[in-house]
Amino acid sequence: MSSPFDINGGACVAMVGKDCVAIACDLRLGMQALTVSNNFPKIFNFAPGTYLGLTGLATDVSTVSDLFRYKVNMYRLREERHIAPQTLANLVSSSLYERRFGPYFVSPVIAGINNTTGKPFICGFDSIGCIDFAKDFIVSGTASDQLFGTCEGLWEPDLSPENLFETISQALLSAVDRDALSGWGAQVYIIEKDKVTQRLLKGRQD
Amino acid sequence: MASIIGHNPHSNSIGYSFSQPTNAGNKEHSFYPYTDNGGSVLGITGKDFAVLAGDTRSTSGYNINSRYVPKVFKIGGDQETGEGAHILLSVVGFAADGLALKERLDAVVKMYKYQHGKPMSVRACAQRLSTILYGKRFFPYYVQAILAGLDEEGKGALYGYDPVGSYEREQCRAAGAASSLIMPFLDNQVNLKNQYIPGSGEGHALEAKKPEPMPRDTVEQVVRDAFTSAVERHIEVGDGLQMLIITADGIEEIYHPLKKD
Question: ipTM of the assembly?
Answer without folding.
Answer: 0.96
